[in-house]
Design goal:
Layout: H1 7-15, H2 39-57, E1 66-67, H3 78-83, H4 88-96, E2 99-100, E3 115-117, E4 120-121, H5 132-139, H6 174-181, H7 193-230, H8 241-285, E5 300-302, E6 313-316, E7 321-326, E8 329-336, H9 337-349, H10 365-377, H11 386-406, H12 408-438, H13 446-460, H14 473-488, H15 493-509, H16 515-530, H17 535-539, E9 544-547, E10 550-553, H18 561-574
Antiparallel strand pairs: 1-2, 3-4, 5-6, 6-7, 7-8, 9-10
Helix pairs in contact: 2-4, 2-9, 10-11, 12-13, 12-16, 12-18, 14-15
Amino acid sequence: MDEPTTWEKLVQRTDCLRPFISPTDISIYDAVFPASTHPKIATIASLMNELYTLFIEMGYLPPTSVSFAPHNTCPISLKHAALFGLEKQVVDLLQMLPCYDGTGPNWNFGSDQGEFLYGGEFDNDLRGEDKELSWWRKCSDPCYFTDVGWKGARAIGWDLKCKDVDEEGGEMEEEEEEEEEEKDWLMIDEPEDDDLEDADWGETTDGNQDTDDEEATDDDETTDDEEMTDAPSSDEEEIEAEELLTLQQDTILANAALEEEEAEFAAAKAKKEEEEKAYRKLLEEDPRNERLLLYMRPWHVTLNSIGNHGTILFVNTHNFTISQTCFGNVCDFRHNAIPYLRSMINNFRTLQWIPGGLYSPDHDKERFTAYESLYLEAGWPDTFDRDKFERSRENYETELRQRYIGQQPLRALSEHVSKMRSREINKLRYQHTLEKLAALSPNADSDERKNLEQGIYRFGREFLPAHFEPISKDTLEGYKNNLNEMLKKGAAESLVKSQREVIAEIELEMQATSFEEKDWLFYELRRKQALTVDSKMKALFKCKLSWRGSSIDLLDVDLTPEIVKEMAREKYERNL
């Protein structure tokens, strides 16, 4: 589908969503800012203002990048809101929310355009005209399902009602709200209570069953002992021929019945797979099918955008709950919006989360710990000196960049050895796939055969001589000409040095006549370069790979083809 970049295209796209959405009379909305609204809508907007203000105070967002309501000079477009039939409380909230202009944060370790929460980005600016694509994302397809060849698995509409409220938006009881406030909700997927009860019951049942089996076994052993004591010690107890024959016949019939049952199950499974294939094909060929049920109910609103398969927060303005997605997939994170946002703000304020994509030491231990220390050393939160924090942060990032550059030879060696090992693993995969294809039944599914053939090609092109393509002399001459142009124009010394290194590596690669020869030529080069790295830089970088059940330092071992093959086989067998 074409992107709805004009008003006419947007109207045409929304026509496809009828009757699920219906345009609303624009007169129901306030022009710029709601004269009055529901208290909880006002509280949600206030908390979002507090969150954006906190990001500014922490130095993450530039103060000039955020505009706070009322947006008098450039209000949100009401004609777009009316086109999607948004309820007044949704528009009230949109008019009260802060707007981020997208200029970019002062640092970022998460999503490309600036991390808001777990891969999700800041919301699109809906102020002004010519915002058709932003409104389409906001009100219809925030997860990009219709634009990435989605196959209809979630074609049920964005009916994100909370499990603790009725569909019409009956509010939660106060006691339940208090219980929600005590929880740490974000990114925690707790099972339903019923599931827990089933799990506990299963464990108890299994435990009792084991106990019963042990008791039964003890009883059986006691009975057998008693019988052996009372019975005469002779070999006269034999199974009669007729009984044995009957037993054999029963076994044959049971096996036949089992085979028939397995055949029926396989046939039913195959039929179901064929039906699913046909249904997916239908969805792919007809864009008017179930995928058009992807729409936002007019009483839901998002607080941010998805980014690169990140998290989105959906607010239900009927019951004031938030539904959170986990990396673009609709999950069961549904909670009271107000305590949820308070918890989120508290996590940033107490440095449990660092703005920009650091949510725990597990994400990036060194950087998380460093930023936490930088904040505390600058007096966070009570006597925070933002200028001091920014100076310290810039010094830290400069040191980190210098270390990254200094460790580049170590990184290049580690990556090259991993590439050599991967080539050997592909040889093993290639052989295994050949064997599977040879053993494939002539009546096997064509897709399975095609997948195996594609695998053979994919693995084979990594090492087979027919796929080796040496670099041409024309390529080398092109790089040399570029170098001469750089010298004539007085390019920076670092750029000239980098170009010379590229030319030297091209000349080295031209000596190779096979994948293996190229690998070992570059291994000697990379190892020689890595050995020249400063010892302090080496100590901070783990240039290691697994071999024979332990981690080895690539600078301590001079690899051979046999060692690389052994490393590859170990990794391949671990992953089988």
